[in-house]
Amino acid sequence: MNSLKLYTEPTTGNAVDVYWTIGINTSGVIRTAMEAESEAMEVIAELAAIRHLLFEVEVFGLATSGSGIVLELSKGATRKAILGKSKHKDAIRYGAFLDFIKDGMTIKTGSWKPSEDIKTAAQENRIDLDIEPGIHGVSGCFIESPFLGRVLITRHALERFEERTIAESGLCKNPFSSLAKRLSNNEMKQIALPKTVQKHKIKKYGAEDHFEVWKHPTSTLNFGIVDDPDAPAKVLVTVFVRNF
């Protein structure tokens, strides 16, 4: 089992230190900062830290499945936010990214508290993280593709991928992991859509001049991606079936 234990500690202003450990000899701290105050500041900080550790630091490798992962949270309120049961609605959206991988994941409130020695050592290599609603508060997961770069996978796109994959091959055991692998396949090619189809997709997703379609030559699945240069990442907005 891969266990990630966390402990939050407010510092000054809108900053929160989130201490973490994944074993006896591996621990650290992330100092989060928010622009605006929130009653759920510590919960949001803990969720943003988890996202950073799983998908940026990749403490367990790139997490495309929750199987075998244990999250030991510092607060029951954080667990409620992940489950969508928090009274703090602004906190819920910061935990929505775990919807993609929490099947098979154990999420519980823990009792770990770092010693003063651990705190001192962790502060020497502290990570500073500015919490950005457009990154940490979006309902989706980021992946790094060797040829596409950073891609945000939306809930809609993941659902369409699962539906289309089952229709194509009859099986889709781990949708997020399968989709991440598909988007990292170096045989994927960008294709040109017929003008009528392109016009329909642009109208639907509001991305004129930025809508792209990628496809593997042996598959009928098409991946609709919005590549806005002003956005922090490309966005996979849909998956559809069509032969061109």
Radius of gyration: 20 Å
Distance between the termini: 45 Å
Decide which structural class fits the backbone: alpha/beta
Q: What is the CATH first-level class name of the largest domain?
A: Alpha Beta
Structural features, described:
- The protein has 244 residues and is an alpha/beta fold.
- The chain has 2 domains: 137 residues, Nucleotidyltransferase, domain 5; 101 residues, 2-Layer Sandwich (YaeB-like fold).
- The protein is built from 8 helices and 12 strands.
- It has a 6-stranded mixed β-sheet, with helices on both faces. A 6-stranded mixed β-sheet has the order 7-8-12-11-10-9.
- 36% of the residues are buried.
Q: Which structural traits does this protein have?
A:
alpha/beta, 8 helices, YaeB-like fold, 2 domains, 6-stranded mixed beta sheet, 244 residues, Nucleotidyltransferase, domain 5, single chain
Helices and strands in order, then pairings?
Layout: E1 2-10, E2 15-21, E3 27-33, H1 41-57, E4 69-73, H2 76-82, H3 89-95, E5 106-109, H4 116-123, E6 127-130, H5 133-136, E7 140-145, E8 149-154, H6 155-169, H7 175-183, E9 189-191, H8 195-205, E10 211-215, E11 221-226, E12 234-241
Parallel strand pairs: 1-4, 3-6, 4-5, 8-12
Antiparallel strand pairs: 1-2, 2-3, 7-8, 9-10, 10-11, 11-12
Helix pairs in contact: 1-2, 1-3, 2-3
